[in-house]
Design a protein that fits this description.
This protein is 20% helix and 27% strand. The strands form 2 sheets. It has a 5-stranded antiparallel sheet, with no helix packed on it. Strands 1-2 form a two-stranded antiparallel sheet. A hairpin with a 6-residue loop joins β5 and β6. The protein is globular and about 35 Å long.
């Protein structure tokens, strides 16, 4: 075997592993609902999520209203669940698996509606708070997600009343 052949083999393996790593990373980002597409007329807010949660990478234009998740000062940072609906059915009350948001993560708020009452848990260190107001958020295209206003706030200077009814 010549020296040229022997020295190119490791380079081929290195290129293969490099391409494999890029492919696996791209698939992972797509599976997490992220995209490499950039809107040139928008601001991006990125917050890293704890293990087992979604990574928040949300794009909002200057005219969109943002919702910020709020853990109500729990002693341990607790992720906040989102739901497929706002009613009292079992389906609406079942959190969307793997779609928990870390405290202070922001997402685009699309509209608001009145739904089931959600009460915080002061016995667990939560601020005493309750609300029957829900906000549909934009995060993953084609997936309907609602956040309860018990564990979220509208980012000032906007207000909940500025959102249209769903």
């Amino acid at each position: 075997m010549s020296e040229t052949t022997a020295s190119t083999r490791p380079n081929r393996r290195l290129r293969f592993h490099h391409k494999l790593g890029i492919a696996v990373g791209t698939i992972g980002l797509l599976a997490a609902g992220c995209s490499s597409d950039k809107d040139t007329n928008s601001a991006t807010n990125t917050n890293a999520a704890p293990t087992g949660s979604v990574a928040v990478n949300n794009t909002a234009s200057g005219s969109e209203i943002l919702l910020r998740f709020n853990d109500l000062d729990q002693k341990a940072d607790a992720d906040i669940s989102v739901y497929p609906g706002t009613g009292n059915t079992d389906a609406d009350k079942t959190a969307i698996a793997g779609r928990d948001f870390p405290p202070d993560a922001t997402v685009v708020a699309e509209c608001r509606e009145t739904g089931r009452l959600v009460v915080s848990h002061p016995e667990n260190g939560d601020e005493d708070r309750e609300s029957d107001q829900w906000v549909r958020i934009r995060f993953i295209p084609g997936v309907t997600m609602y956040a309860t206003m018990t564990y979220a706030d509208i980012v000032p200077p906007a207000s909940l009343e500025q959102l249209p009814e769903c």
